[in-house]
Amino acid sequence: MLNGKTAVVTGGARGIGAAICKKLASQGADVAIVARSANEQALALEADIAKEYGVKAKVYACDVSDAEQCKATVKQILADFGNITILVNNAGITRDGLMISMKEADFDAVINTNLKGTFNMTQACYRPFMKQKYGKIINLGSVSGLLGTAGQANYAASKAGVFALTKVTARELASRNVTCNAIAPGFIETDMTKAIGEEAAQNYLASIPAGRTGQPEDVANLAAFLASPESDYITGTVIRIDGGLAIS
Ligand code: NAP
Q1: In-domain check, residue 1
Q2: Does the beta carbon of 13 sit less than 6 angstroms from any atom of ligand 1?
Q3: What are 110-153's pLDDT values in tens digits?
Q4: Which of 46, 52, 88, 232 could be stapled to 9 by a disulfide with Cβ–Cβ 3.0 to 4.6 Å?
Q5: CATH number reported for the structural domain that contains residue 163 in this entry
Q6: Which residue is closest in CA terms to ligand 1's atom 47?
Q7: How many other C-beta atoms lie within 10 A of the C-beta of residue 240?
Q8: Is 134 a catalytic residue?
């Protein structure tokens, strides 16, 4: 379904990003894996994807919080792949803590990666998408950006910003046949959620009607749908994927 398409996935070397890279590749897309560094894990994924799915895969080292690096990376991907049709803004970090003691550096780091990083990569792809009159932008938000989770002032604000950015992007590019949607995951098992500890994880689990935490593949399935032509009439939305947390 995605044959001939090129997907750029930020934070693509592990966690949800890696699952999205594999899912899109399994549907025929070539994949540019954007990672902070071309480390062993990123290069192993690059090799696995090429071998398993027979598509082109390449790692690009880029810190998404740096606008110049984003521009240069997109330019290089266009030169290597010929086009970009799907952009998944997935790179994200947490630096949790109650607001009373949250350090300015931790607030800035989270906003700069999660929100500004999404802006930087979207801006870098804006003109190519506009010119080709086609594109799919998928932004990773979080239920935290909808609920305002305590201890996540920086993270929740960054993700709420991502939702606003999603709507602006959708409006600006709708007439060019470019869609932009956000995914708001609940609790997905990755390195990010490992960091919260066993007790907090158990408490969270108790509030999920589905009775289980999510897997990166659950999110990848939704991302693949939003990357496909089947979702062409969906734009500017935030779709929750949280095992029913919204109704608990
Ligand atoms: P993860 O396992 O911690 O992976 C995060 C990825 O982002 C890593 O590949 C990391 O690269 C990359 N990254 C971080 N800062 C970057 C930067 N400045 N430039 C480029 N790449 C950067 O996290 P995850 O759980 O897969 O989360 C993926 C996305 O889903 C995030 O946006 C997160 O906020 C969102 N989300 C996750 C959950 C969850 O429960 N896991 C819930 C809601 C939303 P390195 O390998 O170089 O560190």
Answers
A1: no
A2: yes
A3: 999 999 999 999 999 999 999 999 999 999 999 999 999 999 99
A4: 88
A5: 3.40.50.720
A6: 36
A7: 19
A8: no
The tokens describing 130, both together, are: 């506009």
Report residue 49 as tokens.
């994807």
CA of 94 to the centre of ligand 1 (A): 8
**C-alpha closest to that of 32 among 67, 65, 8, 61:** 8
In a domain? residue 232: yes
Catalytic residue among 126, 155, 204, 233: 155
Express each pLDDT in 53-70 by its tens digit. 999 999 999 999 999 999
Number of structural domains the chain divides into = 1
Residue nearest to atom 11 of ligand 1 (CA): 11
248 found inside a domain: no
Global pTM value? 0.98
Q: What is the span of the domain harbouring residue 35?
A: 6-241
Atom 17 in ligand 1: residue holding the nearest Cα: 63
Contact 118, 139 (CB under 8 A): yes
Q: How far apart are CA 216 and CA 186, in angstroms?
A: 11
Residue 247 resides in a domain: no
